[in-house]
Amino acid sequence: MRRDLAMKRRLMAPASVLAAAALVLSACSGGDSSTSTSSDAGSDTGNDAASGEAVTLTLAGWSLATTPEFEALADGFMAANPNITIDVEDYDVNNYETQITADLAAGVAPDIYTVKQLMTFPTFQEGGQLMDVSDVAAEISPDVATLEHYEVDGITYAVPYRADAWYLYYNADLFETAGVEIPDGQWTWEDFDQAASDVTAGLAAAGNTDALGNYQHSWASTVQGFANAQGQGDGEFLEAEWDYMVPFYEEALARQAEGSQVDFGAITTNSLTYQGQFGTQKAAMMVMGSWYVATYLSQVESGDAESFSWGFAPVPQQTTETAENPVTFGSPTAMGINPAIDESKVSAAKAFLTYIASEDAAIALAEIGITPALTNDAVADAMFAKDGMPTDDLSRFAFTTHQTALEVPLGTDSPGLQTVLGDAHTAIMSGSVSPQDGIAEAMERAKSEVLD
Amino acid sequence: MATLTLERPTTPRPLNRPRRRGRTLAGRIALYVTLAIAAAAIMLPFVWMVISSLKTNNQVFSIPIQWIPDPVVWENYLDIWTKSDMATWLRNTLILSVTVTCLQVLTGSFAAYGFAKTRFPGRDVLFLAYIGTIAVPWQAYMIPQFILMSRLGLNNTLWAIIALQAFSAFGVFLMKQYYESIPDELCEAARIDGLTEYGIWRRIVFPLSGPAIATLVLLTFVNTWNDYLGPLIYLRSPEIWTIQIGLKSFVSQYNAEYALIMTGSVISVLPIALIFLLGQRYFVQGIATAGLKG
Amino acid sequence: MAVPVLEKPAAAPAPPPRRKPGQRLKVRNAVIGWTFILPNFLGFATLTLVPVLILMYLGFTSWNAFGQATWIGTENFQRLITDKTFHTALFNTFYYAAVHIPLTLGISLGLALLLNRKLRGMGFFRTVAFFPYITSIVAIAVVWNMLFSPDSGVINQFLMWIGIDNPPGWTTSTDWAMPAVIIVGTWRDMGYYMLLFLAGLQAIPGELYEAARVDGANGLRRFLNVTLPCLRPTTFFVTVMLTINSFKIFDLILVMTDGGPGTATLVLSQYIYRKGFEEYDFGYASAVAIVLFLICLVVTIVQFMVNKRRER
């Protein structure tokens, strides 16, 4: 008796282990067959959908308490489609990719999810985690920017709703104190360097030693984004031929050495934030993405930022030739449909994707300060009607007119290349290696480890 | 130790006594001064947290660092309760920490007895498997584990974290090592007295392992309380967020409410500090062995 | 049931009457042993052991977290041989572990001995020593980074004050970033391991110290002849945990330097995370995890054997 029991016990443990192993292995090897599990996540709505009327769609967004864009899109859509409910699920903004990857792998991801970084799009697309939405793409306005990036072999897999671009922000009050002309929309990088140095000197002469001419945040994109957009030849990025980045680094280091912007080491060791530096008048200029417009306005309201006369201009160019249609870089954000979605909900999901790229949605986004993928005069009016927005023509020009290159050119190797370049950025900016050596080292690493 | 020194009037060297006492006093003062300085240095990051919690967001990070907030934003300590679900987060975290700690202590110490005081083939290999899993970084097997949890229907419930943390190899290992320092003779004697192995565990070994259990309770509690990655992956609905996850909701894509994050961090440290202050009383030499040799 | 019974006679045809009681005792012991372990083992096996075993399998595949994991044999491991960044991460991990382990071991044991007294206020100081471990790691990273700041940081100002003209750049320098991380790592972990040592010290019977004292042994002697041998199970536990945790160091590096400048503080755990969640190369990430696991396993087995030998 007792022996019998012993054996049972002894066998039970390994048996349960085996059963569990089988469970997971089947999941790891059969991603597509996992539709059954996702349907029970939305089973409460399944019946309703079958009866033909009300549909509930789930949507992955992030930091809902502080990011109004998802609710704005959902509300706008639900107002026009009363039989469809959009449930926004909250993800962590800094770990969105980790969370959504786990959800997709386990087959429990929402019906519609946001492709937060364009760079991860190839992974989701190749992994079979995005539904073909070419019919949606055919319906939406051709003015929607960056749609082409979500197309692979003639098939569209996601629809962008916002397209941030980088501007040159400036504090007109500090320029005035320093006695320097504010940006006129014709600046090259040399003009920019000169202004940074003049403003720093002018402010010091006027007795303001707290503020510098420029603030350049510690991110790699503040150098590499511009190099990729303005300095790159055809496809050099994806081939890891990065010599074009060297002059951009030399300029950044020169500004740092001259003291017209805070030194990289000081930024990282003191965890400086760009919102704090520009918002509390520690810098007269800053290149930053268009999202900062909304951030600054809300910070002024909450008292975290000071109120001063400000504006934004197109980013400095390589030459004045491109001043008519300035080249900047940006990063689109898109939404796609999870292929594991219940069959009955697909048309509703597609209707939502059509909506997010519409003018109505664009205006709704512009009203909360977000740069939509679709820009026209109506959208610009909505954007600049906000309280506290600059009213000058140059700011409006910067918003409406630019060619947006990608922050990181797109390919399957992009994430790997970006990791290598991220390491190079900290090494160069901290002064551990010269730009030439740092870039050369990164190119070698990329070629031997990332590209095959 | 000090009491021992004072207890020694019977030492056959009475001449030493005054000098000894003087030295101990001086030594003790020196000890306290050293400890106080070290304590101040060690507490610096916490002090910084407290100071930052009284600033506005953009003042938290600036050069040079502002050691005295101006203005002092006491409102942060009020705002955090109205701006967020702090109470819910604290409740969830408390539920998790208590449940996990209880389960970990019970199953861990029970299993530890099996490893420390019984002998059977394969025991050491099994034990190595336990330790072996500690050596694998969690982020490497996170996805397979997540898939498994979803299949079991546990993700997005508090059960996921309980299941994840309650059976960790750490507790088994800790308790096993402590049990090994309890003399086998004690168990032998109990066996002769007719106690079953379960009886020995319940009546003798478990009660004797006070300090080890206190350690396990403290460490498990703290680890569950401060766990970030586990809840991040498994707890998605705001109503089951823990405090560490909740604090991250003050971070948005392009901005962060640093002052509130620091306020929340200060609040979240206090309960553990209190529990520690109470729990550490079990670490006074002599308690454990009082019953052992009697 | 049938398997062991059939096996035994074949393996040993020796006198059956003698063996039977032994055999029964063995089974009985096994039953008892397993009943103790089972409640914990069931949870541990399904939720931890299985995913770890699957990871071992994934190390031999190419997998992007979605769809099919393709078996590619030892290809991942061959790639590791020529992967220079992996070598850097491996070196940095050993660097961190080699300095951090002895340093933390010494300091935490010292702290435990110092604070294991019945003096007034010891509870407070123990709590203080444990504080770094419970303070939010983000706050820790921020404050230490400020202290280490090359120009405005307190540490360098102090170093210059005592006459060092060229103080290190700490987290902004490729040579000094790792020492900076090790200092913070040790500072953070010392309270944790101190606690484990404190628990171990409680198991030492006070009578042993009394006896040693009567024999005229001085403090050092008592430490060497009483404290250390009695503390052996605890020391073993602390050493194994400290070793594994040092090789697995992740969160502290992530918040303090993120592996930089360049790859100066890139460690294996972080490399695994990057390869997995940033580059979606989960097969390769699993292979790196297996290497990390093997390193820890070898070191642990060595410690296990040393411990067994000392036990005798």
CATH homologous superfamily annotation of the largest domain in chain B: MetI-like
Strand content of chain A: 15-25%
Mean pLDDT of chain A: 87
How many strands of chain B? 0
Largest interface, C-beta closer than 8 angstroms, per-chain residues: B-C, 99 and 100 residues
Q: Please summarize the sheet with the most strands of chain A.
A: 9 strands, mixed
Q: Could you tell me how far the N terminus lies from the C terminus of chain A, measured between alpha carbons in angstroms?
A: 62 Å
Structural class of chain A: alpha/beta
Number of DSSP helical runs of chain B: 16
Would you identify the regions of chain A where 5 or more consecutive residues have pLDDT less than 50? 1-13, 30-51
Oligomer: heterotrimer
> What name does CATH use for the topology of the largest domain in chain B?
MetI-like fold
Q: Approximately how much beta-strand content do the residues of chain B carry?
A: under 5%
Architecture of the largest domain in chain B in CATH? Orthogonal Bundle
DSSP strand count of chain A:
11
The top level CATH class name of the largest domain in chain B: Mainly Alpha
Protein name (chain B): Carbohydrate ABC transporter membrane protein 2 (CUT1 family)
Domain ABC transmembrane type-1 (chain B): 90-279
Keywords (chain B): Cell membrane, Membrane, Transmembrane, Transmembrane helix, Transport
InterPro entries (chain B): MetI-like (IPR000515), MetI-like_sf (IPR035906)
How would you describe what is shown here?
The complex is a heterotrimer of chains A (452), B (294) and C (312). Chain A has helices at 2-29, 35-41, 43-50, 69-80, 96-106, 121-126, 134-139, 172-178, 189-205, 221-231, 246-258, 264-269, 274-279, 292-302, 346-356, 359-367, 377-384, 393-400, 414-429, 435-450, and strands at residues 55-62, 84-91, 112-115, 151-152, 155-156, 159-171, 212-215, 283-289, 310-314, 327-337, 403-406. By secondary structure, chain A is of the alpha/beta class. Chain A is globular. The N and C termini of chain A lie far apart (62 Å). The model of chain A is unreliable at 1-13 and 30-51 (pLDDT under 50). The longest helix of chain B is centred in the middle third of the chain and has 32 residues, at 86-117. Helices cover 69% and strands 0% of the residues of chain B. In chain B, helix 6 (86-117) packs antiparallel against helix 13 (210-226) and helix 11 crosses helix 12. Chain B has 2 domains: 20-52; 76-289, MetI-like fold (Orthogonal Bundle). Chain B is built from 16 helices and no strands. Chain C is mainly α and 312 residues long. Helices cover 75% and strands 1% of the residues of chain C. Chain C has helices at 2-11, 16-58, 75-82, 84-115, 122-134, 137-147, 154-161, 177-202, 206-214, 219-230, 232-247, 251-256, 268-278, 282-311, and strands at 61-62, 70-71. A two-stranded antiparallel ribbon of chain C has the order 1-2. In chain C, a hairpin with a 7-residue loop joins strand 1 and strand 2. In chain C, helix 2 (16-58) packs antiparallel against helix 14, helix 8 runs antiparallel to helix 11 and helix 11 packs antiparallel against helix 14. The radius of gyration of chain C is 25 Å and the shape is flat. The interface between B and C is large, with 99 and 100 residues. Chain C: Residues 90-303 form the ABC transmembrane type-1 domain. Chain C: One of its GO terms (cellular component) is plasma membrane. Chain C: InterPro entries: ABC_transporter_permease, MetI-like, MetI-like_sf.
